[in-house]
Amino acid sequence: MRIYRAKNYQELSRKAANIISAQVIIKPNCVLGLATGSSPIGTYKQLIEWYNKGDLDFSEVKSVNLDEYRGLGIESDQSYVYFMHHNFFDHINIKPENINLPNGKNPDAAAECARYEKVIESLGGIDLQLLGIGRNGHIGFNEPGSAFERLTHCVDLTESTIEANKRFFASADDVPRQAYTMGIQSIMHARRIVLIASGEDKAQAVHDAFFGPVTPEVPASVLQLHQEVYLVADEAALSLVK
Ligand code: GLP
Questions:
Q1: Cα separation of 199 and 235, whole Å?
Q2: Which GO terms describe its molecular function (predicted)?
Q3: pLDDT at 164 over 90
Q4: pLDDT at 161 > cutoff 90
Q5: What is the pLDDT of residues 176-185, one digit of tens each?
Q6: How many C-beta neighbours within 10 Å does residue 166 have?
Q7: Distance 9 CA to ligand 1 centre (A)
Q8: CA 209 to CA 228: how far, in whole Å?
Q9: What string of DSSP letters covers the chain?
Q10: pTM to 2 decimals?
Q11: Does the C-beta of 132 come closer than 6 Å to ligand 1?
Q12: For residue 111, how far is its CA from the centre of ligand 1 (angstroms)?
């Protein structure tokens, strides 16, 4: 594991974008695993800036996103498909047919999860997976207790995640109770992983994930077993790491 200690969110975003852009330059038709949440917004902004300058070309890049709320689609501004278009895809030259997310509107969970795993497989796997981390150590929507061997599946969100994510909705009651998410195994198959964490409220999760025991109770702790992980965090998120 490599740890990049950034002074602040801006520096963190620049570093994460730098690793992603290197991936795109080395392999222009790479498969990027992408994430939502507030953490990667700065990274996407930086990538868009470099794209606008002419330094990056996404025309051959393929993307697969980690997760999506069950029941939400692009018409909902809380959906992850909307988030990705608004914060990234609509500002770069990625081809629409190369964009993949779980389809939250498919009510058949088993069929949707199987379809999504096939998509990842047909792309030849993920070259670089970007991750955020939940305050309870979740990655994607793999909540504490998720079995490490799971592939894409439908999850019941925990109260703590509903609580943390309600800021994007009118109220906690509006947060969907379920989501489709890549499983831990789907994530671990990625050839490279970049996890970004910012702010003091992530300090405990970062400490437990990277410096505690490897346990399903802290889903991100499985990343200690991955051979190429970059932790890009600011000083606040690393404040509990000696
Ligand atoms: C959600 C997403 C995760 C994300 C987490 C943290 O639950 N499913 O992929 O990592 O939130 O989000 P934030 O970056 O906003 O703290």
A1: 8
A2: glucosamine-6-phosphate deaminase activity; identical protein binding
A3: no
A4: no
A5: 999 999 999 9
A6: 14
A7: 15
A8: 15
A9: -EEEEESSHHHHHHHHHHHHHHHHHH-TT-EEEE--SSTTHHHHHHHHHHHHTTS---TT-EEEESEEETT--TTSTTSHHHHHHHHTGGGS---GGGEE---TT---HHHHHHHHHHHHHHTTS-SEEEE---TTS-BTTB-TT--TT--SEEEEPPHHHHHHHGGGSSSGGGS-SEEEE--HHHHHTSSEEEEEE-SGGGHHHHHHHHHS---TTSGGGGGGG-SSEEEEEETTTTTT--
A10: 0.96
A11: yes
A12: 25
Q: Please report the pLDDT score of residue 160 as a whole number.
A: 87
Burial class (CB in 10 A: 0-12, 13-18, 19+), 11: middle
Q: What atom in ligand 1 is closest to the CA of residue 38? A: 15
Backbone dihedral angles phi then psi of residue 102, each to the nearest 5 degrees:
-60, 145
